[in-house]
Amino acid sequence: MNASYRLMWVFCQVVLRGYFRWRVFDAQRAPRSGPFIMVANHASFMDPPLVGATLDFSIHYLGRESLFRHPLGAAILRSWSVVPVDRDGGGAKGLKLILERLLAGGGIILFPEGTRSPDGRLQPARAGVGLTVIKSTCPVIPMRLFGTYEAWGRHLKFPRPHRVQVKFGRPMDFAELRAEAQSCPKARLRAIYQQVADELMAVIARLEPGADVDRFPAS
Predict the structure, then answer these.
(1) In this predicted structure, what is the pLDDT of residue 217?
(2) What are the structural domains of the chain?
């Protein structure tokens, strides 16, 4: 972590522990180094820093290109390892930057739903996350976030002191679909992207709080 990232990481740790009574389940499944893709449900502004706080090293986030228009803001976002992408996150430029981060040994967090849930319930996955997974070669770690909609969903202007929880799933590799995608017709390729996205959301949906090992990540 650079100084800027660590400062934000420590701030998030303090707030999550003290205000949101943070709990992490199956933290032993968390990656110890990259490259990797983490995928999680999305219901709140607090989801990206919540995911980042579960790890003791920096990961890359996605941010709309419009957030990088101001030089100072852009510098801060880049210091926090935010990757500029178009609104949907599926453009060629954004994908290239994501794959560059992965090839360099980094980790990245993606939200298959594409945007925050309007009601806290899981939404259908978009094919863009499947495209990224297929184009990469690294493991994919599913996660489910609980309580973030109640703590700071779209319906709230300010966060409430509601418990938030994180559950790690087992890593997924998609080796067979990645191999098939190298030579299949375009129509099948598009179907593969959506299939991967749907499988990820199905795994996320099955994750529930509770685990054999229940601990906070190392401080």
Answers:
(1) 47
(2) 3-8+21-154+165-206 (3.40.1130.10)
